[in-house]
Amino acid sequence: QVQLVESGGGLVQPGGSLTLSCTADGITFSDSHMYWFRQAPGKEPDLVGSINTAGEDSNYADSVKGRFTISRDNAKSTVYLQMNKLKPDDTAVYYCRAWVETKKSLYWGQGTQVTVSS
Fold first, then answer.
1. Second label for 22, Cα 20 to 30 Å away, from 30, 54, 74, 87?
2. What local confidence, expressed as pLDDT, does residue 101 receive?
3. For strand 78-83 and strand 58-60, is the pairing parallel, antiparallel, or unpaired?
4. How far apart are alpha carbons 88 and 86 in whole angstroms?
């Protein structure tokens, strides 16, 4: 059974920082392209960014570029989302997603809430 478990969400003040983690079980993590999405209330999910299997290449949405950083530790089957200079507009449920190229399969985590408010 495949599981992606996010953690690290919470309440943070504007300008603050937070690091989310997503740990995978049941997949070959090193074969998986990893993505972070977010969904604000009443809105469609938005892609935050992605990272390739080796962790050498990452891409970001314009709205978070320069503030967010995605990294991964394949030995721990974990992908991270470091979020700095947080804004109220960053408030959303954050989800990680795995695309396992070798199995052509997609998996989602359950999400973790991030609230940016004073």
1. 87
2. 87
3. unpaired
4. 7
